[in-house]
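Fold tokens
===========
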Amino acid sequence: MSNSTVKPASGKLGVLVVGLGAVTSTFMTGVLMARKGLSKPVGAMTQYDKIRVGRGADKKYLKYSEIVPMADLNDIVFGAWDVYPANAYQSAIYAEVLQEKDINPVKDELEQIVPMKAAFDKDYAKRLDGSNVMENKSRWEMTEQIREDIRNFKKEKGVERVVVLWAASTEVYVPIDMKYHGTLADLEAAMKADDKEHVAPSMCYAYAALSEGAPFIMGAPNTTVDIPAMWELSEKTHMPISGKDFKTGQTLVKSGFAPIIGTRCLGLNGWFSTNILGNRDGLVLDEPANFRTKEVSKLSTLESILVAEEQPDLYGANCGGAEKGGHQGYYHKVRINYYPPRNDSKEGWDNIDIFGWMGYPMQIKINFLCRDSILAAPLCLDLVLLSDLAARAGRHGIQRFLSFFLKSPMHDYTKNEVPVNHLFKQYTMLKNAIREMGGYEADEEID
């Protein structure tokens, strides 16, 4: 180990997840199976990736845990909240992501993960109808109850630290309104006034987690921690926050492929993305108000990688797309279609219209037949372990180095900060943060 100043990962790490659906049950099952040596945590950077540290004769490639003190898989203790009362085993069977033979070896442990009552408001997810919810509680009372749940979990399970992860459905879009979201005092006033329009249930979870000294991760595109009030709270409590929306399928492809077009200085006329999926996520997103939240997060990726102002001939008003379509710059459209037969096997179609030398058109088609929860589970593990690491390293506020794992990276829009969506720039930020926490110098930049 280098001269790292990060506090050691002593004791147990509590992982409290909001939502015990397909993603969470797949995540939990995989971790428990990996602990028994019965499966491999494929896709988890924290378990496989190696980072170069040092130069010349001192050059070494080390796993994250060899650079900084990381929590071990054996130290994780799971808990959850969900609107449905099913335990993690029942949930994993119901989700039909994993085969029964891959769930049964850890059946006993999964059955012990029984969800606590969810802070839920049907107006925020009209398609969900569960009975395991907090009854007749105001937003402030919900928050107090979640705080109590966290304290009880720590006590009962004997965990040293807790990380709270949102892996529940996408909520109805809550536009940022500085009157309610601008300062911590404004947000607290809205919560105490039971302002259901401006305070989403997810905000209660984030507020409670940060107040109880737990990092908070937003795995959906909800507005939750993307407001100055929450940034203020995370600075006040010295806790890291990250979000938003797990970058699993189509956006991963987009953030990795768009740089190819940009680096080769090819032009873009249009990018049409469509998805079909049939799990509970798809059901919720079939509601237009919930899809709006997702659309905002998915649309922002491309525009910060292929920037019209920087290359007007390729992406701006002068590009081929503008002339033919009568609009400014390339045309970008995102669609999500609920299609029950697919269940958790999501299909992402990307149809990309590019142009090259002398403006001649070409096309690229990408068809990604992915499994949503299989891609999301390792992201959950990485985000949890790296958020816990950040907290022990004394990092608080927005954790930009975690944008690699997230679809719509948090950024300070009040200061006109542009989020980094370019996958390889995000990877550099991730590696350098780990190097720095490990006491090594940051020595790679893609800019």
